[in-house]
């Protein structure tokens, strides 16, 4: 019985270049948007580029998942089905969906993953879609370890979980705040991130409790210290958020988690990575040195405090020290970090985050590019690390597949074979007898040279007993030919795990659904009717009456964040009535303390 568990590191691919970088820096899989229907509409890709990425990924047995995780309108159904067919022919390993219309389509035998946009938060709902045939659930970020374990014990599908990156404050797939406020829908891949804006917190009488704070802007997720606990709870795929981040973020964070997962695999029996190839890093990864808003472990261990950063939605980077001295417009710091010209430093003031560029560093003195109002003892962060970014841009990290070489002779021919696992390529060349016994060593050394290829020679098995001679140019030519051939063989022999959903007669967990189920087309409507559900309302994006609707549901709670939660602050018997207001909209806040949820209801 095979008890090996395959653990996957899943990285974002904004495009082909980013996807290749993610794989080079250690990803076992990448997720990428096609030209339509992805939850990041601004970063779509052609099928041709996705095909190139699949070929590159499959060389390392890494997988490519296409994000088709938006709701579909009626006139898009056939286009969406055709796109799945194109992507399947391009070589993708799975599609990530939100809209149940895909489950009603005649699709090729491709694995279907339930996007976190499908609201994979409630056990009974997940059990239903597991019976339908979903291959993997990308679980809601709000779940804790106990809930994940319970889900694992009750379903057959794989489980994926976000471990790093930006957090949506609302439950994914059930946030309509962007559409309500701007007309651009998060469920259509066009979220305008109104949660990152400034708000006033008002009481029922209109008094201002907090003024112009980023009250819904969460810190970034970092679960790097919870990987083993997540594995034990049943997670097999660790996902990094960031299809809108820059390429150095992808390199750094992917490399960081590659190291952490490899360390976990080495010390914990029964685990192995789900792709192949050794990654040789040329730097020490550190997620604090690229974009971050400060970190939180969110709800994974039920630590529900200090989840947001009220002062800024921008990157604060890495804490590097405190101001120790000021001389006119120069500052010095108590720090162990090396500061470079062109670094971006920042600090908090009563007005929020203020930043500056380093014009000059001389001894311990730093000259900013502008006049600062800063005091001794101020904490300073670096959110633009010039030296680190320059190091990452060098692209010296390599990923290599280990191959062996066999050398034998047959009559007047030297036979050369390159082997990768159970695959091989071989060729032969006429040799001459030599009086120099070191000639065979020269041949071996030439065959070990694999620069510019994805291979690294592990062993050379040489059964030759006599001195022979072959021109170096001929050896080099045959080496290049064989390695190119082996690369093609590996890609061509890659096998996808295919599956085709056959709908089961299973009842949906509830008998009535409203706009929060995001039903926006006839196929999705048929899906719910087929499974015994009455549709009270269509999707928020297409209903005409949007007044007084809940536009965001979140496990994050402002009452708890400011220390007023009755469960924590025993002085408060009940949650107070609050409103959130900015220049555009006002929302009534509702606290569901039994379910530990906060809701924003539109007041217009």
Description:
Among the domains are: 5-167 and 219-283, Aldolase class I (TIM Barrel, Alpha-Beta Barrel); 295-384, Beta Barrel (Elongation Factor Tu (Ef-tu), domain 3), CATH 2.40.30.40; 400-492, no CATH class. Helices cover 23% and strands 29% of the residues. It has 13 helices and 32 strands. The chain has an eight-stranded parallel beta barrel with strand order 1-2-3-4-5-6-7-11, surrounded by five helices. A six-stranded antiparallel beta sheet has the order 9-8-30-31-32-29, with no helix packed on it. Helix 1 (16-24) runs parallel beside helix 2 (47-59), helix 2 (47-59) crosses helix 11 and helix 5 packs parallel to helix 7 (227-233).
Biggest sheet architecture: 8 strands, parallel, barrel
CATH architectural name of the domain at 5-167 and 219-283: Alpha-Beta Barrel
Question: Biggest sheet: strands side by side, in what order?
Answer: 1-2-3-4-5-6-7-11
Q: How many beta-strand segments?
A: 32
Mean pLDDT value: 95
Bin the helical content: 10-25%
Radius of gyration: 28 Å
Distance between the termini: 61 Å
> Regarding CATH, which class of the domain at 5-167 and 219-283?
Alpha Beta
Question: Helix/strand-derived class?
Answer: alpha/beta
Measured by DSSP, the beta-strand proportion falls in 25-35%
The best one-word shape is globular
Given as residue ranges, the uncertain stretches (5+ residues, pLDDT < 50) are none
CATH topology of the domain at 5-167 and 219-283: TIM Barrel
Oligomer kind: single chain
- Number of DSSP helices? 13
CATH superfamily of the domain at 5-167 and 219-283: Aldolase class I
């Amino acid at each position: 019985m095979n008890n090996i568990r395959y653990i996957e590191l899943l990285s974002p691919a904004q495009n082909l270049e980013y996807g290749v970088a993610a794989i080079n820096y250690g990803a076992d899989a990448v997720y990428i948007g096609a030209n339509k229907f992805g939850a990041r509409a601004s970063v779509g890709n052609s099928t041709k580029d996705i095909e190139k990425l699949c070929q590159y990924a499959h060389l390392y047995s890494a997988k490519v998942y296409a994000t088709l995780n938006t709701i579909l309108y009626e006139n898009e159904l056939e286009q969406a089905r055709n796109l799945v067919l194109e992507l399947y022919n391009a070589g993708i390993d799975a599609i990530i969906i939100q809209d149940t219309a895909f489950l009603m389509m005649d699709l090729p035998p491709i694995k279907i993953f339930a996007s976190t946009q499908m609201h994979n938060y409630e056990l009974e709902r997940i059990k239903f879609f597991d019976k339908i045939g979903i291959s993997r659930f990308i679980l809601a970020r709000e779940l804790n370890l106990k809930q994940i374990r319970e889900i694992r014990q009750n379903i057959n599908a794989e489980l994926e979980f976000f471990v790093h990156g930006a957090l949506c404050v609302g439950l994914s797939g059930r946030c309509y705040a962007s559409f309500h406020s701007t007309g651009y829908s998060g469920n259509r891949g066009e979220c305008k991130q109104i949660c990152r804006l400034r708000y006033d917190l008002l009481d029922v009488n209109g008094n201002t409790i907090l003024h112009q704070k980023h009250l819904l802007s969460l810190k970034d997720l970092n679960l790097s210290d919870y990987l083993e606990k997540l594995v034990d709870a049943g997670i097999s795929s660790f996902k990094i958020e960031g299809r809108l981040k820059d390429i150095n973020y992808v390199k750094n964070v992917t490399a960081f988690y590659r190291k952490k997962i490899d360390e976990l695999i080495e010390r914990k029996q029964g685990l192995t990575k789900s792709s192949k190839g050794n990654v040789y890093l040329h730097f020490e990864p550190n997620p604090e040195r690229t974009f971050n808003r400060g970190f939180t472990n969110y709800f994974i261990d039920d630590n529900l405090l200090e989840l947001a950063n009220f002062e800024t939605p921008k990157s604060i980077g890495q804490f590097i020290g405190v101001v120790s001295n000021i001389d006119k417009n120069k500052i010095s710091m108590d720090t162990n970090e090396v500061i470079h010209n062109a670094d971006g430093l920042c600090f908090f003031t009563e007005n929020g985050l203020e930043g500056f560029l380093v014009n000059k560093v001389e001894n311990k003195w730093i000259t900013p590019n502008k006049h600062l109002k800063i005091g001794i003892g101020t904490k300073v962060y670096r959110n633009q690390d010039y030296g680190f970014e320059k190091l990452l841009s060098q692209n010296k990290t390599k990923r290599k597949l280990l191959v062996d070489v066999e050398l034998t002779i047959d009559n007047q021919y030297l036979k050369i074979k390159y082997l990768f696992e159970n695959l091989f390529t071989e060729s032969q060349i006429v040799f001459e007898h030599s009086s120099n016994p070191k000639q065979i060593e020269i041949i071996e050394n030439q065959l070990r040279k694999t620069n510019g290829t994805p291979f690294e020679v592990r062993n050379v098995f040489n059964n030759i007993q006599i001195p022979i001679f072959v021109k170096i140019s001929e050896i080099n030519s045959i080496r290049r030919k064989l390695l190119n051939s082996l690369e093609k063989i590996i890609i061509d022999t890659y096998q996808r795990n295919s599956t085709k959903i056959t709908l089961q007669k299973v009842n949906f967990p509830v008998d009535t659904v409203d706009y929060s189920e995001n039903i926006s087309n006839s196929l999705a409507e048929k899906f719910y009717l087929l499974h015994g559900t009455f549709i009270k309302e269509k999707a928020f994006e297409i209903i005409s009456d949007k007044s007084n609707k809940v536009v965001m549901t979140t496990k994050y709670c402002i009452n708890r964040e400011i220390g007023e939660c009755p469960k924590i602050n025993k002085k408060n018997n009940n949650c107070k009535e609050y409103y959130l207001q900015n220049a555009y909209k006002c929302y009534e806040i509702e606290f569901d303390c039994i379910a530990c949820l906060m809701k924003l209801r539109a007041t217009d």
